[in-house]
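Limitations
The structure tokens in this dataset are predictions for the assembled complex, not deposited experimental models. Users should treat interface geometry with appropriate caution, especially where small molecules or nucleic acid strands are included. An illustrative entry is reproduced here so readers can see what is and is not provided.
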Amino acid sequence: MKTSRVRIGGQSFPLHSLNTIVIGSGAAGLNAAVRLHEFGQTDIAVVTDRFGAGTSANSGSDKQTYYKLSLSGDRPDSAFDMARDLAAGGSMHGDIALAEAQGSLEAFFHLVGLGVPFPHDRFGAYVGYKTDHDPRQRATSAGPLTSKLMFEALAAEVRHRKIRVFDGHEAIALLAEGRGAAKKVIGAVALDKKKLSSRNRGFTLFNAANVILATGGPGGMYEHSVYPESQTGSHGLLFEAGAVAHNLTESQFGLASVKFRWNVSGSYQQVVPRYISTDERGGDEREFLNDYFPDMGALATAVFLKGYQWPFDPRKAVDGGSSLIDILVHEENVVKGRRVFLDFRRDPGGGGKLAPFEPSLLGPAAYGYLERSGALMATPIARLRKMNGPAADLYKSHGIDLAREPLEIAVCAQHNNGGFRGSVWWESSLRGLFPVGEVCGTHGVTRPGGAALNAGQVGSARAALFIARRRAGRPLAAAAFVRAAKAVVLEKHGQAGAMINREKTGSLAPEACVAEVRRRMSSCAAAVRDPEEVRVEKARARELWLRARREIRVASARDLAKAFKALDLALTHAVYLEAIGEYLARGGKSRGSYLVPDPAGRPPHPLLGERWAFSLSGPGDFVNANILEVRLDAADRVRRKWVPVRPVPAADGWFETTWDDFRKDRIVVEEG
Ligand SMILES: Cc1cc2nc3c(=O)[nH]c(=O)nc-3n(C[C@H](O)[C@H](O)[C@H](O)COP(=O)(O)OP(=O)(O)OC[C@H]3O[C@@H](n4cnc5c(N)ncnc54)[C@H](O)[C@@H]3O)c2cc1C
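Predicted assembly:
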């Protein structure tokens, strides 16, 4: 890496020139850096707003899952089977699914080698279990904090390899040269958060032959979110650069605690807690599920099933299925404005025609599970302590004692299946830009639990291999870089100055902008998406973005990072709403993890009324045979394109020809 200073518009800026920068320090970004180094490309650096922030380092569930090819039991598995299962939810390209399946074991053992404690038996079998959308037992886990353990192991390796980390650097723009198909990313502008009050406002320029973007999911867009507070996302960077995104409509929503953000999946439901709602002040307590189930056995079994059917799924919302619970929580919380809690202190009490809960009322599978776990105790908290003590301790370590207080929950945004489109080497539509991890939307309408962590590891490893083999060249000479970067640097620097100097009257505070984004997304673009509301709100979202560009004001330079983040989120939500609007305009119905009200359908429960009527999208629908791609054009319009889903390639593993191609370096090659 070469460090110098350059002058642009009368200001002096630090310039770091190197082969590759990795933006973001989650499990995907750190793996990209480690892999580049392993493959021999050492002219690299990680640029991150805060080391230790993001989803990987701060999220989990009762048993956080990693999905890979099966390595245990006596049933054979194959990468082709796994690829078909990854793509089975629809709207996932088959070649990407195959690459993720083929790469899953290498990625997994790379983590094992770095010390992530995935459990194995005495014969060396890395035993698995079945997760959601998984027909096999491909899931494994290192416990509630799998992604944190991955982050820590990869961070230790980054330190061990002495890879340079620019901590406290928030990327605010990507830099590119050329136009149309020849457009190429050449680096990025970041704010050095320790130097915001200096003359150049902390602007730091990176001149890189390649940019790996690992900035995670757009968690900051939602009011009800289980993404950690530190994970807001930076999709606006890529939209502004013109990168093509796809499947933005597909996200996962599910029940999570709100005071401390955590998924209440698995054991938290299998011990059958009492669901209660109260008014704003905690009065008028009701066991609101009671009205919707014919008997306590059906209610308790639906709660139990929610454990491993965690994401909201409209297909499971009818006939007393487990996703009816998400709808009922949404109805209490969002529609009626009440607070909803899981109470682990007492069993569901029944009432009316419902008997009080006792384990013998559960369906045979659920009862058998508790019995085999030795967890037929008298209260949910006792059952939880027996079945998964660490799950109860986890809340205690965050100041919530489940034995003493109920746990407030909501239906929250958890993961974005879509994101930026990548090639089989994870290169975006812009040459030199490689989105990896959650920002790269490889998944389709549904995904097996754990597939996100696998995709992040496989994608970052493949991007690193491709860069090491094909893009090992030097970055631009400083003068050429300045020529290409000047316009964007001046624009962003000018914007920073304008935001600081703006009059207070008629201005928009970053916090107010973000609050509006969050309200809008959670009310009409999360688990429930009313077409009429989306039509109105997508226009308002665009207005907010345009207004934010004109009116955001910060009291001092110290708040610049916050202001750029608000701008990013305003743009991101406007593009997401355009994508959702396009899906609905094409007749898209309920699928994945969201419900689209449809008067021609039927309500999930008679008591919920016609307002909740919906119908499911069918496999032959246009929206399922095609994937919606969107991008922002040079005039800031959102361009849309539907492209057919590519199937899983046919098996073609003839050794002699592959070996020949391999020896002649014809495997890791530029895409046609
Ligand atoms: C509660 C919860 C439970 C989950 N459980 C599972 C599970 O069981 N299995 C599974 O497969 N997946 C699960 N996921 C999803 C999975 O954890 C994430 O998709 C994954 O960790 C994302 O990793 P990442 O490296 O892409 O991004 P992150 O880990 O989010 O990292 C993003 C990084 O980018 C940085 N950053 C962002 N913007 C900028 C910027 N402008 N400049 C500089 N740095 C920036 C952030 O600080 C952070 O370092 C879960 C998610 C949640 C929220």
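Some entries come with short summary sentences. For this one: The chain has a mean pLDDT of 96.
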